[in-house]
């Protein structure tokens, strides 16, 4: 597991989060269910999650700026799409559902790897996830959900590397930083094959 400590402004109260998430152990075995809100309180409770990295035909990655209404890491830049499978929902159904809900597209997605991490946002909330990472290539027009996403842009892997290595690194979510380091270090051929 990777632990990430960080701080920012205090979390703002938001709408009641009623999705029931899947609690897992370190081996990704289901051990129960809990509301999304409770999964992210305090130091967080380990739950199943996913991250999607969507590339265009030019090999650029779609990144998004999280909406200001997000409880954790509002206004930070992150991967193309991330979320959680709901109770009784398969990973395959969840990734396709969320890709359409957030970005208004569908495209083939390939599993890369899975990792556990914990990232503390502030005293009241954290992420503690067993996260499955997928990549895909999309040729459809992006139609972002403005309730979830404030801004978005396409960026080349090289430009992203420069931003994450410089002073701008603090503007990215901790899970995206971890994912990109591993993807570019160990799965670069899979990324380049999408071009």
Short description:
With 195 residues, this protein is an alpha+beta fold. It has helices at 36-39, 91-103, 157-165, 174-186, 188-192, and strands at residues 2-5, 20-24, 30-35, 47-55, 61-66, 77-78, 81-83, 109-122, 125-137, 149-155.
Topology diagram in text:
Blueprint: E1 2-5, E2 20-24, E3 30-35, H1 36-39, E4 47-55, E5 61-66, E6 77-78, E7 81-83, H2 91-103, E8 109-122, E9 125-137, E10 149-155, H3 157-165, H4 174-186, H5 188-192
Parallel strand pairs: 1-8, 4-9
Antiparallel strand pairs: 2-3, 4-7, 5-6, 5-10, 8-9
Description:
Strands 1-8-9-4-7 form a five-stranded mixed β-sheet, sandwiched between helices. A three-stranded antiparallel β-sheet has the order 6-5-10. The chain has a two-stranded antiparallel sheet with strand order 2-3. 23% of the residues lie in helices and 35% in strands. The radius of gyration is 16 Å and the shape is globular. The chain has a single domain (2-7, 17-192), classed as Nucleoside Triphosphate Pyrophosphohydrolase (Alpha-Beta Complex), CATH 3.90.79. The chain has 195 residues and is an alpha+beta fold. It has five helices and ten strands. The relative contact order is 0.23.
């Amino acid at each position: 597991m990777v632990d990430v400590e960080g701080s920012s402004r205090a979390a703002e109260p938001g709408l009641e989060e009623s999705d029931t998430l899947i609690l897992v152990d370190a081996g990704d075995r289901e051990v129960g269910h809990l509301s999304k809100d409770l999964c992210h309180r305090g130091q967080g409770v380990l739950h199943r999650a996913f991250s999607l990295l969507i590339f265009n035909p030019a090999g650029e990655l779609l990144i998004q700026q999280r909406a200001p209404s997000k409880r954790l890491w509002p206004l930070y830049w992150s991967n193309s799409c991330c979320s959680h499978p709901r109770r009784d929902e398969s990973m395959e159904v969840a990734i396709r559902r969320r890709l359409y809900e957030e970005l208004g597209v569908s495209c083939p997605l390939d599993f890369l790897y899975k990792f556990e991490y914990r990232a503390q946002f502030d005293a009241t909330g954290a992420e503690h996830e067993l996260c499955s990472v997928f990549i895909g290539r999309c040729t459809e027009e992006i139609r972002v959900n403005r309730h979830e996403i404030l801004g978005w842009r396409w960026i080349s892997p090289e430009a992203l590397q420069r931003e994450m290595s410089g002073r701008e690194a603090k503007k990215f979510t901790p899970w995206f930083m971890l994912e990109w380091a591993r993807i570019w270090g160990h799965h670069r051929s899979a990324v380049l094959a999408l071009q």
